Structures are given as C-alpha cells and as structure tokens.
Amino acid sequence: MKIVIINYGAGNIKSIQFAFKRLGFEALLTNNPDEIKAADKVIFPGVGEASSAMQKLKESGLDRLIPQLKQPVLGICLGMQLMCKSTEEGHTKGLGIFDVDVKRFSNTVKVPQMGWNTINNLQSDLFKDIKTNEFMYLVHSFYAEQCQEAIATTTYEVEYASALQKDNFYGVQFHPEKSSLAGEQILRNFINL
Amino acid sequence: MLTKRIIPCLDIKNGRTVKGVNFVNLRDAGDPVELAKQYAVKGADELVFLDISATLEGRKTMIEMVLKVAEQVNIPFTVGGGISSVEDVDVLLKSGADKISVNSSAVKRPELVNELSSKFGSQCVVVAIDAKQVNGQWKVHLAGGSIPTELDLFDWAKEVETRGAGEILFTSMNNDGTKNGFANQALAKLSETVNIPIIASGGAGTIQHFTDTFKVGNADAALAASVFHFGEIEIKDLKEELKQEGVSVRI
User: Fold this and answer.
1) Which of A33, A168, A176, B127 is the most buried (most CB within 10 A)?
2) Chain B nearest C-alpha distance from A110 (Å)
3) Tell me: the pLDDT tens digits for A162-179?
4) Across the interface, do B70 and A14 touch by the CB < 8 Å criterion?
C-alpha cells in the first residue's frame, strides 16, 4: 500500500502523516507528479487560505494533475474545498471535481466554526462502522453547500455537505486525523477502499 | 450541533509537566505525552500546552515534545508560551501543533497577529489575553499577568479579531487560582464584542462553574488545569452533568 500526501506547502500536514503512522502505514509527503500518480491512495490536505493555496497548486502543475488521478483521492478541509467549483474565499476558482460552490458562514454564528460537531446522513464506504451523529473535529469558516454529491452532512447555521464523493474522489471538511478513534476508522476505511 | 469544548491545560518546563499531576495508573506524571494520551482517552476535546521554559534549551525540548504529542495523540492541541515570530510558529506547526497561542508578544507588536493569520490562516492563531478588573475596568496584563497595561480587554479583543485571530483564550486574573468560578460577565460581554470563539480560563473549581460559564458566560470552550490534574473533576463526570444541564458536549 503506497499512500502519498500531496505536499504543496499548505499548512500542517505532519499530523496526517502521524495519523497514518498510528494505523501502521508510512505515508509519503511529496509534490512529485510521478510519485503521486504511482500511489495507491492520495491525500490532498490543506490548511490556510484558498486563493494562495490554489496559486501554489498552479505553480507546481498539480491543479491539472489532481483531477486526472484514477486512484482514491481524499481531500481534507481546504483540500476538499479546492476540489469544488469555486470558493468565496479570495473569489477562487476551484478544481471543479465536485459540482458545488463553497460559501462563507454568515456572522449570525461564530466564525470559524471550531470544535466537535456531528456528521449525519452517511452514505459511503468511507463511513463503514461509523455511526450516524458521530463527532468529528472541524475548523473552518467556509462550507460546501448541501448537494447531490454529499455523503455526509453537518449543521452549523445551515445543513451543509461535510463530506463529498464523486467517482474516485472523496472530500471531508472535518479532520479525521484529529478526530479521535472515529477519525482513525475513517482513515482506515479510506485505505481499504 | 457544535459542542462546547473541555480543555485541560498543561504547563511545560524543559519538556516536563510542572505543577504536579495526580493521576492514578500513570507511570510518569511528568511526561506530557503520557498525560496527553490519558486526557484524550478520558474525553478531553482539545489540549493546551503552555511552555514556561525560560531557556533556549527548554525551547528546543518543547519542539521535541510537540513532535511526540503529534505522533501519539489523536485530538487537536495548541502550543503557547514564548512565541514571538513567524519563525517560532512555523517550526511548531511543522512539528505537528494544530494551533499556537500568542500573548505578550502580540500586545508589544500587534502586527504579529496579521502576519501569523495571513501566513498560516486564522484557524491556527489563538490570542491569549490575561486581564484583571481594576476599578470596574478590565485591563490587559503582560508576562503572565505581572505587568499591567492601559489596554482595555474588549478593545484589544476586537482589535485582534480584526487582525485575524481565530480564537481568544481569556484568562481572568481575578478568578485564576480561586476555584470560585469563571469571569462570566466579562466572558458574555466578550462574546457580544467579537464573533470568534472564546475559551474561558481561570477560576474552575466545581462542575457547576463549567455549566455557568457555558450558560451564563456564553463561552465556547472552558480551560482548566488543577481540577483535572488532581482528579478533583473527572472529564467524564463533567460532561455527563453538562449534558444533563442541557449543554451540548461530545460524549
């Protein structure tokens, strides 16, 4: 099993690598297109600001590579948001893998949403052995709207898509690598896809 | 529903926890990694590590500790204490810290908050504020509360929010160490003043104090040290009771 974590200079990726290590897998941090293409599983992480992250993807040509990947790809947090059509953050055009736009929470709630919230309406093997209403750790100011490709929803101000899937592409808004045992189960499920 | 967070805080000096911890079944109560793992199992939602080392050697040890915690603990954690530059933060985040907190250094040079949030994102920038109520005015204090400033708590909170802070950790010096409850009035006013999450700190003594700080103080999270370290309050019991009181928690 060859797992790679796409390293394009966006945020803290060490904790994802450590999470796989706790599961007994070495995940390689790389931005090398050949390494990424050859992997069995690809993690597309992201923490930080959307437009500068997108810029970094473009500089390395990863914006063209990622949508062409054939193996299971898991976008986490900003990684998932960048896989959408567009995001209001920095008026950024995304990779367009998921047919949904990313909006900002309004100021009727505290922004960012920070902490543990539940995931519901689970509809994928990614959530095998995960019970509905399981808690996941989230930190985000922007969210993907409820849509056809949603495989989990979470409610904060509105009910939004907290996980997405299209073909071999998966995205989660929450941080499985920081979500205790249930989060580890989701990473294990991804490895087993 | 987004739940209220319970956050144990560990003081670290030269890579070891200080102030003492009194856990049963713990091989080494001074080992922060061991403790962090225990707290994660016990149901803590997040952890805060405060580095009180005064030496360069102590800082280096702290980085090693952060790496080990990130390697072994599956819940988020914040690192604070002695952080004053983009470089300081860079090395901590690269070592696996989820968030960092700045305090005195931000008061001395407020642009630091802008620099950190634009480089690393607001989500990982916690601004810790120590304040004391003097003649009805909440004044910000520096260097662990030892140096008073003329800065007003609410003005400063608003300013750091504008500069890109993702969260505020407010410690009331009037309440800290008293075990008489959190500064709920000031906390409630803070929540009205800013639109980012607020962590309540200082004064935890009983389970009721936590209920009050969530219900009356509108806090998003509550931080405490000794009541957890000495087993006076078990996180499991705390959360069960909060739930019964109608406070949404992760159990």
Assistant:
1) B127
2) 5
3) 999 999 999 999 999 999
4) yes
